[in-house]
Amino acid sequence: MSAAREALLDRCLAYLQETGFSDLSVREIAAGVGTSHRMLIYHFGTREQLLVAVVERVEAIQRAALADLVSSDGDLAEVGRQFWRRVSDPALAPATRLFFEIYSHALYRRPWTDSFRDAVVAAWAEPLTELLVQRGLDPAEARRRARLGLAAARGLILDLLVTGEREIVDAAGDLLSELLTQPLTATARALVAE
Predict the structure, then answer these.
(1) Does residue 173 lie in a domain region?
(2) How confident is the model at residue 63 (pLDDT cuts 50, 70, 90)?
């Protein structure tokens, strides 16, 4: 990715997080970041491809934040709680709404969502699995918990966006962190072995 494209993407991200996303045209976004619509099209293609690039950037920032939290070598459930607070921050709501908007287009396999579909699960599931393996889980169990955690966290974020019920959704996020980091019981180990 060129330095000019990177800088332009950073400006678009900052602008779009302040103003919201859905209703803006390429011309409006360009005006907001101080460039021409032609430059946005040159670097990103379509409006949709620009928005996918913005979401991918936000996701990369969140994965880096998780890596920073994990490097502290603290209690994994506490790391999960801290990360939940970060990804559910109201300041991220415009980007999070855009994420789910693009996700809905990906369900219909819109061609401009190809890169998003390729990475939306894999980019998170692999590092989460590695983290759980490093903390002592069997690789198969780590993969299951990583996928469960990813899907449940996204569901909780969607719940928060729709209902605004911060207290109960935060409590559910805390519970999710606790459940995902508990050792397997003998019964659970037997079920996994089957």
Answers:
(1) yes
(2) confident
Within-domain flag for 158: yes
Q: How many structural domains does the chain have?
A: 1
**Domain-located, residue 71:** yes
Is the full-model pTM beyond 0.90? Answer: no
CA angle 102, 105, 107 (to 5 degrees): 115
Query: Phi and psi at residue 119, in whole multiples of 5°?
Result: -110, -15
Output b/e per residue, 72-85; b: 16+ Cβ within 10 A: eeeebbebbbebbe
Each residue of 92-112: pLDDT tens digit? 888 888 889 889 989 999 998
Q: Which domain holds residue 160?
A: 56-193
Distances in Å between the Cα of 47 and the Cα atoms of 31, 96, 144, 168 are 14, 17, 35, 36
